[in-house]
Design goal:
alpha/beta, 7 strands, 19% strand, two-stranded antiparallel sheet, 178 residues, five-stranded parallel beta sheet
Length: 178
């Protein structure tokens, strides 16, 4: 982990969490309110042909993390970006001024993933990921503790609360004026 602090006029935010925790919902709402650019990494990788393969077992694309980082580098350097992805350990530490990790109750997460049509194996793997706090631990291993914020996202009201929490953090960010 680097010790130098990058100062931008507008901060970059990473919103991470297990699939189904509400990353994209919160990221899109936040981007609309504060007029930041939103990058949903899975869609970004697909639309820029940055996927290595297809994982038939999990029924999803496998992204080429190095190519994704290379393609995003210039975009992120300007600041004012909300990056939304379930993983967080391959992004350069200096990209983000804050890392928000969304967490959801396991029963609620199970129901959300089932409603998405995920098969039982994929649901089980994602719920286990949430139980063992794999994304939070990944964030702690990859970024300084003082930029990591845990947010619970269980009920619809939590979405509004979390959007407001991140918005307030951005407003307090030195140098950012809404």
């Amino acid at each position: 982990m680097s010790s130098s602090k990058v100062t931008r006029q507008k901060p970059n935010i990473l919103i991470a969490g297990t699939p189904g925790t509400g990353k994209t919902t919160i990221s899109k709402q936040l981007a609309d309110i504060i007029k930041f650019n939103h990058i949903e990494v899975g869609e970004f990788a697909k639309s820029n042909h940055l996927c290595d393969s297809w994982d038939a077992k999990l029924n999803c694309h496998v992204i080429d993390e190095d190519k994704v980082v290379d393609k995003m580098e210039e975009i992120v350097s300007a600041g004012g970006i909300i990056v939304d992805y379930h993983g967080c350990d391959f992004f350069p530490e200096h990209w983000f001024d804050a890392v928000f990790v969304l967490k959801t109750d396991n029963t609620i997460l199970y129901d959300r993933l089932q409603a998405r049509g995920y098969d039982e194996n994929k649901i089980r793997q994602n719920v286990e990921c949430e139980i063992f706090q794999e994304i939070l631990n990944e964030a702690r291993d990859s970024y300084k503790e003082d930029i990591i914020v845990e947010l619970s996202n269980n009920i619809p009201k939590d979405i509004e609360t979390n959007v407001n929490h991140v918005k307030q953090w951005i407003e307090k960010y030195s140098g950012f004026k809404d």
